């Protein structure tokens, strides 16, 4: 039987999560003044100064003000290690703490989604306009250097600013030339459907400041009287009404903890979850939507059994090779003295350039780990610095780090609640390197790194492989070593994946509607059936753009 709820407030749409996807959704849904929209964010405002200074990610990750500070379960593929698993806890979500890299992935990623869902609307040629729709690409500025191809593949005047980085490093220029000598072509644009090649990454910045989705999409929309923002508000559960067990069910709204009280908000049309690949499955499970046995284990009534909720977790595992170099300017040496640090700070203060303006990774490379791969299947993030682990001091010698990740991992993990308490973090089990293919790619990719470092252009720095170390040579030595030094590059996806009606593990259909629950969608990185071949922030924006269009279309 349906329980009649007394709602404290009522809206047309409720968006859960003011992160990468949620800020765009709130903007698009509230563009029609007739739509009353509520946007809910568990984190606080994005008024912490380190959010906006690009190098400030160092102070935002693992900071309870801006990061959920999740940790993975001990992982067999990582030889029993547990990893810090950052997720944004502020307006803008992960776009407020990430590496700012603008990367769409490869056309084949989206063509595969179309095959998995049976919906051609996910093919590359149909997704491309949604990327372009919100772009503001620097090459298309007045006086920019865009050629015809840039004009065909990029947009101008949208909310999402894309700029070139505001510094270069000679040692990275030479690493790029070494990549060319190793057989990897140069590229002028990673985002035309095939990202093979080497170049500096383009970044989501404006004039040397981080450009997050709160600035791009939310702040302009908050001027509208029909958009309401509740920040510092925890969603406890979704409210689902309907007959049991097999009758039609509908998501009517949400229960939240706000300002110390429990409140209920009703959505006349739809609720859309945009809490990310960790948060959205957690909310679904807490609401009784998910694997029945898991829910019963924690005393949660099964409202609707969907075994795929929280399964299919995928992530990019980066394997960091560190090369000690001679005769090169790197951040290790620049920031080794108080005078050096003062100079870096002054340059940013006066010009918005230099190391404080830089993304965590500057140089990008996409290539193949071996000849058996038809498409680029590994990605490098190359940095003019080195340290033992994130958050630790820079090494006292000049060095370069070349981090490589498998773009298309076959390992699959899970996100599962550990309690009926919304405040308790879920279990996150990525299951890295759990397949033979992933272990083989890990070993092969480290050999590609060595091949690049051996080339003439980089050899002039007399590179010494500090990590992993040349003593590791066999496949088994290398993939076990990868388990020792590998870490997340912060790209969890897939935990509420799209699929066809006959796919029992699909959580949403091809239009992102939760199977078996009317009035409920998911629009975030969790809906990806397979991870994109690159950084995942920009594809998440594209997903939100498409979701907003479908929601408005459904409303007539």
UniProtKB/TrEMBL annotation:
Domain Glucose-methanol-choline oxidoreductase N-terminal: 276-290
Cofactor annotation: FAD
SUPFAM superfamilies (alphabetical): FAD-linked reductases, C-terminal domain, FAD/NAD(P)-binding domain
Gene3D superfamilies hit by this protein: FAD/NAD(P)-binding domain, Glucose Oxidase, domain 3
Keywords: FAD, Flavoprotein
InterPro entries tied to this protein: FAD/NAD-bd_sf, GMC_OxRdtase, GMC_OxRdtase_N, GMC_OxRtase_C
One Pfam family hit: GMC_oxred_C
Taxonomy, superkingdom: Bacteria
PROSITE patterns recorded: GMC_OXRED_2
Family designation: Belongs to the GMC oxidoreductase family.
Name of the protein: Choline dehydrogenase
Organism of derivation: Halomonas litopenaei
């Amino acid at each position: 039987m349906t329980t009649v709820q007394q709602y404290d407030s009522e809206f047309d749409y409720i968006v859960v999560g003011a992160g990468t996807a949620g800020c765009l959704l709130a903007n698009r849904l509230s563009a029609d003044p007739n739509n009353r929209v509520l946007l809910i964010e568990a984190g606080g405002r994005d008024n912490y100064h380190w959010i906006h200074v690009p190098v400030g990610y160092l102070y935002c990750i693992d900071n309870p003000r801006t990061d959920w500070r999740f940790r993975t379960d001990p992982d067999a593929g990582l030889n029993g290690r547990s990893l810090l698993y950052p997720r944004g806890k502020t307006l803008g979500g992960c776009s407020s703490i990430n590496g700012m890299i603008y990367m769409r992935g490869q056309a084949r990623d989206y063509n595969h989604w179309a095959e998995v869902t049976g919906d051609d609307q996910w093919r590359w040629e149909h997704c491309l306009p949604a990327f372009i729709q919100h772009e503001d690409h620097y090459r298309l500025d007045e006086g920019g250097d865009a050629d015809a191809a840039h004009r065909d593949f990029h947009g101008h005047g949208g909310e999402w600013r894309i700029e070139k980085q505001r510094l270069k490093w000679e040692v990275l220029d030479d690493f790029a030339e070494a990549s060319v000598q190793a057989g990897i072509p140069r590229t002028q644009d990673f985002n035309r459907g095939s990202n093979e090649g080497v170049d500096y990454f383009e970044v989501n910045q404006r004039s040397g400041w981080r450009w997050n989705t709160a600035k791009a999409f939310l702040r302009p929309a908050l001027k509208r009287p029909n958009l309401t923002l509740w920040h510092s508000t925890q969603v406890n559960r979704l409210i689902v009404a309907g007959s049991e067990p097999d009758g039609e069910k509908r998501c009517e709204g949400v229960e939240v903890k706000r300002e110390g009280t429990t409140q209920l908000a009703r959505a006349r049309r739809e609720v859309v979850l945009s809490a990310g690949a960790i948060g959205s499955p957690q909310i679904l499970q807490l609401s009784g939507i998910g694997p029945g046995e898991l829910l019963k284990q924690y005393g949660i009534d099964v409202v609707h059994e969907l075994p795929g909720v929280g399964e299919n977790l995928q992530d990019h595992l980066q394997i960091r090779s560190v090369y000690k170099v001679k005769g090169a300017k790197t951040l290790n040496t620049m920031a080794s003295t108080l005078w050096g640090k003062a100079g870096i700070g002054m340059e940013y203060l006066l010009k918005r350039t230099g190391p404080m303006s830089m993304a965590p990774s500057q140089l990008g490379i996409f290539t193949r780990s071996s000849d058996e791969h038809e498409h680029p299947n590994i990605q490098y993030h190359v940095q003019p610095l080195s340290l033992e682990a994130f958050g630790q001091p820079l090494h006292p010698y000049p060095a370069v780090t070349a981090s490589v990740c498998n773009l298309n991992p076959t390992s699959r993990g899970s996100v599962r609640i550990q309690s009926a308490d919304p405040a308790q973090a879920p279990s996150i089990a990525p299951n890295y390197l759990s397949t033979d293919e992933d272990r083989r790619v890990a070993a092969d990719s480290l050999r590609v790194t060595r091949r690049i470092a051996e080339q003439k252009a980089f050899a002039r720095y007399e590179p010494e492989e500090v990590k992993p170390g040349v003593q590791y040579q066999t496949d088994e030595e290398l993939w076990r070593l990868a388990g020792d030094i590998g870490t997340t590059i912060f790209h969890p996806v897939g935990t509420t994946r799209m699929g066809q009606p006959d796919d029992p593990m699909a959580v949403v259909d091809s239009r992102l509607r939760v199977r078996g629950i009317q009035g409920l969608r998911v629009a975030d990185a969790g809906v990806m059936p397979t991870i994109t071949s690159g950084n995942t922030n920009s594809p998440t924006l594209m997903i939100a753009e498409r979701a907003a269009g479908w929601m408005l279309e459904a409303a007539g």
